[in-house]
Amino acid sequence: MLRWGALPPRHADQYDWISVYLHDRDEQGIWRTLIFTATLALASSTALMIKSPQGPDGPVAVTICVVAAALAFAAAVPFLLHWPTRRQSLVFSFTSTATIAAAALSYSNDYVGLMGCATFAVIGGFVAYFHTVHEVIANGAVAVVCALILAVRMVMSTGDIYLMAAALAIVATLNVGLPFGVLSLAQTLRSDLRSSGRDPLTGLHNRRSFHQSAYELIMRNDTEGSRLMVIVIDLDSFKKLNDTAGHAAGDAALIRISAALADHSGISAIIGRSGGEEFVIADVDHPDPPEMVAERLRQAIAELPVPVTASIGTACAPLKNGSQVNLRLLDELVEAADAAMYAAKRAGGNQVRHAAS
């Protein structure tokens, strides 16, 4: 079972879970506005420097600043329109890094350019929060190269080693302290969320953690043609077990059943305990039909040495382009699978029912 936060290497990027975290709290709109506004301000500062005597000198340098400002603005447009994909976010960060470097190196006053390298810290903080340490290091490496070039040019033109050293100290402090501080905070937040999102008895996701993890799974597979499968499981005769054998026996049964669900679900499946004796599973692009997966789970539970069976409902639908549409789809499929589960229970239990697409 794929644990929330323990992603394969190609998905070690933080963008998916941070996006889900913000979506869950209705804060994506605020972040979109802040990111776009900050980028617009930085792009405008580059454009304003064109008119400054300390800014670009000559048609080539002016053109570089104009293009840099335009590219920075264009890269931020997705944040104005919608919550961007991971790829769009990476394009934004790489473009921003490149445009900051181009603008800083084009200024006629090397001290102004050197101090402009402090803005790399803004992008460093962004990639530290949303992406990986590799992007943080890449952004920092560009900042170091630009700062060293400008520092050498500044000493050669002014001879003021002390001013250069003071400027470098400020730039270095910001470009190291801010990104790596944000990175540490984001990783700590993720660790805390992961540990607090587990059912203490079974180790499965609790209701909130299930939805967050399932949303993250969807965002990692947000491509046309992929299929999202949801399975809802409710145990038959569980109350009778609790009443006759005691809650300790009920707890032991839940632990065994949870292990069976994990053993017979796909490696990428998100498994949650949504209620006392109710479980929910979400997976994308499982090789087997949902009815077959559900029947395998039903048999696994029936074969356990516990006097309970399971009524299971399933629902499945293709994902579409657009994360917001697919996030709503998850909720719809959970409702449909839940209704199918109740149909199985009304038919006598220990059965599987599939919701019509």
TrEMBL record:
A molecular-function term among this protein's GO annotations: diguanylate cyclase activity
Keyword Endoplasmic reticulum: no
Pfam name, any one: GGDEF
The protein's name in its UniProt record: GGDEF domain-containing protein
InterPro entries: Diguanylate_Cyclase, GGDEF_dom, Nucleotide_cyclase, Rev_trsase/Diguanyl_cyclase
Spans traversing the lipid bilayer: 29-48, 60-81, 88-105, 111-129, 136-155, 161-186
Cellular component annotations (GO), alphabetically ordered: plasma membrane
GO BP: cell adhesion involved in single-species biofilm formation; negative regulation of bacterial-type flagellum-dependent cell motility
Keywords linked to the UniProt accession: Membrane, Transmembrane, Transmembrane helix
Domain called GGDEF: residue spans: 226-357
SUPFAM superfamilies: Nucleotide cyclase (SSF55073)
Entry superkingdom: Bacteria
